[in-house]
């Protein structure tokens, strides 16, 4: 993305992060299902997904009515995504999170990543109880870039 404007994904000033959790989530898992992937380039989900593709992640979109975004397959829901899902990256409102967590548990996802502004404590607790690493109210792009810099 050199020379391009960064996607709309901003830090929120939180300092309660755990780099070991972020590193495990981001560098041990490569298959991401992006729930709420937008076909519109100005949307955060589109730019963040483009960045993650360029960083070498295998991306599948989840958006009802779409078939392909960013030259990647898109499915109506997580249950339709073929193969294993390691990270469920969520760009949906908090009220959609409980159903997404149910699907992530069924699919045996390893990580639930709720993007900036998205939190649902009860659903997050259910995901953790199922053994899923949960990151909420954080941008996967920002954390990936930050960890790449500190590792480099």
Describe the structure.
The protein is of the alpha/beta class and 152 residues long. It is 34% helix and 18% strand. The protein has a single domain, classed as Rossmann fold, CATH 3.40.50. Helix 3 links the parallel strand 5 and strand 6. It starts with 18 loop residues before the first helix and ends with a helix. 38% of the residues are buried.
Produce the secondary structure layout.
Elements: H1 19-27, E1 31-35, H2 44-54, E2 58-62, E3 68-69, E4 72-75, E5 87-90, H3 97-106, E6 111-114, H4 121-129, E7 133-135, H5 140-151
Parallel strand pairs: 1-2, 1-5, 2-4, 5-6, 6-7
Antiparallel strand pairs: 3-4
Q: Please state the average pLDDT score.
A: 88
Task: Please work out how many helical segments DSSP would assign.
Answer: 5
What portion of residues belong to β-strands? Answer: 15-25%
What top-tier CATH class fits best? Alpha Beta
* Helix-strand makeup class: alpha/beta
N-to-C SSE string, H for helix and E for strand: HEHEEEEHEHEH
Total strand segments: 7
Question: How far is the first residue's CA from the last residue's CA?
Answer: 18 Å
Low-confidence stretches: 1-16
Largest beta-sheet characterization:
7 strands, mixed
CATH fold label: Rossmann fold
CATH superfamily: NAD(P)-binding Rossmann-like Domain
State the share of residues found in helices, binned by percent.
25-40%
Number of domains: 1
Strand order of the largest sheet: 3-4-2-1-5-6-7
Please give the CATH architecture: 3-Layer(aba) Sandwich
């Amino acid at each position: 993305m050199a020379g391009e404007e960064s996607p709309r994904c901003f830090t929120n000033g939180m300092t309660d992060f755990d780099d070991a959790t972020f590193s495990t989530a981001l560098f041990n898992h490569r298959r991401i299902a992006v729930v709420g992937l937008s076909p519109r380039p100005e949307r955060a989900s589109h730019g963040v997904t483009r960045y993650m593709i360029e960083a070498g992640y295998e991306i599948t979109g989840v958006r009802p009515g779409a078939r392909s975004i960013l030259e990647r397959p898109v499915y109506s829901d997580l249950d339709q995504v073929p193969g294993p899902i390691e990270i469920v990256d969520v760009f949906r409102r908090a009220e959609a999170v409980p159903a997404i967590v149910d699907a992530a548990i069924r699919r045996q996802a390893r990580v639930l990543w709720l993007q900036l502004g998205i939190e649902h404590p009860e659903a997050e607790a259910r995901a953790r109880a199922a053994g899923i690493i949960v990151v909420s109210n954080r941008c996967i792009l920002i954390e990936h870039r930050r960890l790449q810099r500190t590792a480099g």
